[in-house]
Amino acid sequence: MQSPSDDFPRRSPLNPADAAKAMWIENFNKGPYTNSRMVEFLVTKIAKLHYADFLSNPKRIEKIKQKKLEKHTDFPFDALWNTKTGRCTAFALSTVDDLERSYDHDWDFKFYKLRNHRLARCEKTGVLIDSSSVPGAIVLREGKWERLEDQGWKYVNGKSKFEKRNGVVVRSYVTFSVLSRYDCATFTSSEARADHLEVAKRPDMLCLFRSFQSGRAQYHGLIRWDFSKKQLTLSETPDKHATKTVFIWSKNGTPHDEQECVKVLNGFINAHGGPWGFQQWHSGDIDGIHDRVWTAATKSWGYARVESR
């Protein structure tokens, strides 16, 4: 198992496929799948709210329109993806950036939008950087199906076929909409900004721990804020039938109840955060964002207490 590292010296000259595989694994282990930084951006930068004001009416950010995002062209959007935390767009951008800085290969990555999913493919090597890939980075040659486990990719002249079987067969035959790196990184294109608008439509905040072990991507515990219900849910796995612990904020809670919740949360990360749980929790200010929301929740709703286990 590869341990996350914060150093990016020039690496030994691996072939492109092996270099991409190594960097994909390293970045996958470094940070969780999360929308925390996007939620904070929407609340504090776009809506210009304090968390206490946001929690009094979470639906406020549902009304954010694309035009309002377009006004923030001077915001350093790379702060939303260069911390190894985030969703598919952040993962593709940070992994490609690290590959180009760390390995002396003639890379030529293009970024693509596949409906609401984003990924990157190198035109010269066929390397595919897709955060949803179970085996990590793969080589996707043009015109050939690449099938691994329950997933399949095919790329032909800018058109993609993607399928995934996991209980239910899902097929997606769509065109890869090409995004320039600037558009993808700065969210100045309507396609890239859709990430933020999608988050705004349902402003829950989540953190899914993950790791790459035994040759495959694995997902562990899930922490999810449901602001409309004034609760935080800890799920041992991302499966909807997973064992859950729920914290509820109310005026009936006490400081002792809240201290117990903090202990339960730390125990959850230790037990269900995977091998890099606390490292991922402390990456990209995810824990800091969580603490700011928690403090505001206590101020607005009362103390947290364990509702169910």
Walk me through this protein's architecture.
This protein is 35% helix and 28% strand. The protein contains ten helices and 15 strands. The chain has helices spanning 16-30, 36-46, 51-56, 66-70, 88-102, 181-186, 190-201, 255-272, 277-281, 286-301, and strands spanning 33-34, 109-114, 117-122, 127-129, 138-139, 146-148, 151-156, 159-166, 168-175, 177-179, 205-213, 216-226, 231-235, 244-250, 303-308. The strands form three sheets. Strands 1-11-12-13-14-15 form a six-stranded antiparallel beta sheet. A five-stranded antiparallel beta sheet has the order 5-4-3-2-10. Helix 1 crosses helix 5. The longest helix has 18 residues, at 255-272. The two termini are 32 Å apart.
State the helicity in percent bands: 25-40%
Overall shape: it is: globular
| β-sheet strand percentage | 25-35%
Q: Main β-sheet: number of strands, strand sense, barrel status? A: 6 strands, antiparallel
Order of helices and strands: HEHHHHEEEEEEEEEHHEEEEHHHE
Please work out how many helical segments DSSP would assign: 10
DSSP strand tally: 15
Low-confidence runs of at least 5 consecutive residues: 165-192
* Mean pLDDT metric: 79
Structural class: alpha+beta
Strand order within the widest sheet? 1-11-12-13-14-15
Distance between the termini: 32 Å
